[in-house]
Write a structure and sequence with these properties.
single chain; alpha+beta; Deoxyribonuclease I, Chain A; six-stranded mixed sheet; 26% strand; globular
Length: 371
């Protein structure tokens, strides 16, 4: 059987602020968005809070006047948040969260058709029996992609499609698709897991227990850890460390309960030697990364993201000892990635004429097991 993971960076729609040429281009808008969310969540708005919200809205052209900029939208459902006097200044008249019902949201951008089809080509060519996906809008999008895009590029449709909505409101969840002979036996979500600092997972760490045709059981934990982008790097690192600790706990709990074949798959948003991932990959961990396995087909690029440099190794398939012993072969599929400034770093699909045609900035990892 083949297990794979792929950060598709959304299938049909992606927040416009996350769909700019570089992540850095979108950071100011994402920072503004998160700051607005934090401010409107207060029970009482001080004058300083209101001034700060107005300043943020002013620098996002259109948000203050027509409730929408290119990247952020204001939704007001009940009550009043703003007062727009004709010819006068715009004021925030809500004095706290209880005065109105509404929110700020990120404006979506439609992903180009060529990029969508190239995502389908990656899925077609990897052809995994169990495919884990990162940054998917929702189950409807994943199901629609399976039934329309994959057949269009001459791929084989999957029989089981599952996604549990997580904690991220931007539409970047984790999901799974499996073939008919690889039935999902049970599902467990960890969206509500908490520690002393609050909710642990930025998205979720769902557990999918999958039956194989030979009668074995494979447990897959799909993850997308907190990114390094926008916000305090200290807070981001702490968040990933908390997530790594919890995944290690979930993994070892299942291992101690007698499950032999366990995989942790997805985008952990940090390198193997990083401090935040040490609770999961260091300190006596029994997990083996497929890219460190002697049966992995190394293509000379140690990373999984963008240009594949060592500092860009952020995607993983981690395996329990018994599962690692069952490895037949492992590899990485980069044909959907635009590598290097001119796309010449490694081969890609002929349909990728420019960077915006790429399926994703992430390559897909896969591993074959005798299971």
């Amino acid at each position: 059987m083949r297990l794979a993971t792929f950060n598709v960076e959304n299938m049909f729609e992606r927040p416009a602020a996350m769909n700019l040429p570089t992540l850095k281009d979108g950071e100011p808008f994402l920072e503004d968005y998160y700051r607005l969310l934090k401010l409107i969540g207060k029970q009482q708005y001080s004058n300083a809070d209101k001034e700060q919200m107005l300043d943020i809205m002013k620098r996002n052209k259109g948000l203050l006047t027509v409730d929408k900029s290119d990247y952020i939208r204001l939704r007001v459902i009940r009550g009043k948040f703003l007062k727009k006097a004709r010819g006068g200044p715009v004021e925030i008249i809500a004095n706290g969260r209880g005065d109105w019902i509404g929110w700020f949201e990120l404006v979506p951008d439609i992903i180009k058709e060529t990029a969508i089809e190239n995502t389908g080509r990656v899925i077609r060519d990897v052809n995994a029996d169990v495919f884990c996906f990162v940054e998917v809008e929702d189950r409807i999008a994943l199901n629609r992609f399976n039934s329309t895009v994959i057949p269009k590029v001459h791929g084989k449709e999957y029989d089981h499609v599952m996604l549990i909505d997580g904690n991220d409101d931007r539409g970047i969840d984790v999901g799974i698709m499996t073939r008919k002979q690889f039935d999902i036996e049970t599902i467990a979500s960890h969206v509500d897991d908490m520690d002393a600092n609050g909710v642990i997972f930025s998205r979720d760490c769902p557990e999918y227990k999958i039956n194989t045709p030979s009668g074995n059981t494979l447990l897959v934990l799909i993850n997308h850890f907190k990114s390094k982008g926008h916000g305090s790097q200290t807070e981001n690192n702490n968040k990933r460390e908390r997530q790594a600790k919890k995944v290690r706990d979930i993994y070892e709990t299942n291992l101690n309960q007698g499950l032999e074949y366990i995989a942790v798959a997805g985008d952990l948003n940090d390198t193997p030697e990083s401090d935040p991932l040490r609770p999961l990959l260091g300190n006596g961990s029994t997990l083996t990364d497929i890219m460190k396995h002697n049966k992995f087909k190394d293509d000379g690029h140690p990373g999984t993201y963008a240009n594949g440099s060592k500092s860009q190794k952020i995607d993983y398939i981690l395996m329990s000892p018994q599962l690692s012993n069952k490895v037949k072969e492992g590899g990485i599929e980069r044909h959907g990635v635009w590598g290097g400034e001119h796309g010449t770093l490694f081969p890609h699909y002929q349909e990728i004429k420019e960077e915006k045609n790429a399926a994703s900035d992430h390559a897909s990892l896969w591993v074959d097991f005798d299971l």
